[in-house]
From TrEMBL:
<keyword id="KW-1003">Cell membrane</keyword>
<keyword id="KW-1278">Translocase</keyword>
<keyword id="KW-0547">Nucleotide-binding</keyword>
<dbReference type="GO" id="GO:0016887">
    <property type="term" value="F:ATP hydrolysis activity"/>
</dbReference>
<dbReference type="InterPro" id="IPR003439">
    <property type="entry name" value="ABC_transporter-like_ATP-bd"/>
</dbReference>
<dbReference type="InterPro" id="IPR017871">
    <property type="entry name" value="ABC_transporter-like_CS"/>
</dbReference>
<dbReference type="GO" id="GO:0046677">
    <property type="term" value="P:response to antibiotic"/>
</dbReference>
<dbReference type="InterPro" id="IPR027417">
    <property type="entry name" value="P-loop_NTPase"/>
</dbReference>
<keyword id="KW-0813">Transport</keyword>
<protein>
    <submittedName>
        <fullName>ABC transporter ATP-binding protein</fullName>
    </submittedName>
</protein>
<dbReference type="GO" id="GO:0005524">
    <property type="term" value="F:ATP binding"/>
</dbReference>
<dbReference type="GO" id="GO:0005886">
    <property type="term" value="C:plasma membrane"/>
</dbReference>
<dbReference type="InterPro" id="IPR003593">
    <property type="entry name" value="AAA+_ATPase"/>
</dbReference>
<dbReference type="InterPro" id="IPR050763">
    <property type="entry name" value="ABC_transporter_ATP-binding"/>
</dbReference>
<keyword id="KW-0067">ATP-binding</keyword>
<keyword id="KW-0472">Membrane</keyword>
<keyword id="KW-0046">Antibiotic resistance</keyword>
Amino acid sequence: MSAAPAVEISSLVKRYDGVTAVDGLSLRVAAGTITAVLGPNGAGKTTTIEICEGFRRPDAGSVRVLGLDPWRDGAALRPRVGVMLQEGAGFYPGARPVELLTHLSRLHADPLDVPMLVARLGLDTLGRAPLRRLSGGERQRVALAAALVGRPEVVFLDEPTAGLDPQARRSTWQLLDELRAAGVTVVLTTHLIDEAERLADHVVIIDAGRVLAEGTPQELTSGVSDDVIRFGGPPRLDVGSLRAALPDTATVREVAPGSYEVTARVDPRLLATLTSWCAANDILAEGLQVGHRSLEDVYLELIGAEGTTR
Ligand SMILES: Nc1ncnc2c1ncn2[C@@H]1O[C@H](COP(=O)(O)OP(=O)(O)OP(=O)(O)O)[C@@H](O)[C@H]1O
Ligand SMILES: [Mg+2]
């Protein structure tokens, strides 16, 4: 990579009492890209992001944001970095959204246009209600607007679309796409794997304070991994018999009653074997589909269906 990374985390460690929340995590975020950090509850996402924001001090390792140390150089970084905390907008419960954004915009040299931001995030219908009277999703949108209004070079967004309705989520995605096009670096966390897939240039999957896997969504879902064939049929088919008909490395599962998944290196011959087996058993394979494994498949496999490995 030629350009200096916007964010560089090296061997970061953070402990709380007995808990090691971040356990030797390293990460580079290229400038002008969107990075999505995925991981189960308690994986260390918020802790990592809050260290990048300068809110927490690392126990070991180093973090550089725009080449600066967020803990020591907070004053220099603050005007250049936008921050949205998890369950945002706990700030100023009596403030009115537009007034708050106008106030924040005046603290910055080259802010975004407040009426534009207000309209884009659907805040124009909120009138003069103070933050404490807004719904959770409305407060969330105000927090996002507050993170962006200063036209930051880097934004850290901790679950920015949690609790947003589908339309607001879409507007947020569009806004983040536009920011990226304008050269802004975005680091966000999410539990929505389709959001990461749709939005991110780079996806980082973490668990127990470490990076388990990273890459573009394509890199994470292709490579050496098998493909998946999905089809529907009557419940409780004899999956053992289908398994026996297929090559040794294939797996067959009834993932839900009447819903089947074959994982294998798919080639035309394997597909023909599968459909012949269906024909021999008088089964119409409904909605038969051959595809790559989804990012969700990869995620669940890495994390383990049980959830966190901590
Ligand atoms: N202030 C704190 N004091 C003590 N332990 C904490 C504190 N904050 C977080 N932890 C612990 O550190 C670990 C990582 O928490 P963190 O909030 O970073 O996870 P997360 O990945 O953001 O999870 P979520 O998806 O639920 O937001 C958890 O085990 C949590 O209990
Ligand atoms: Mg969190």
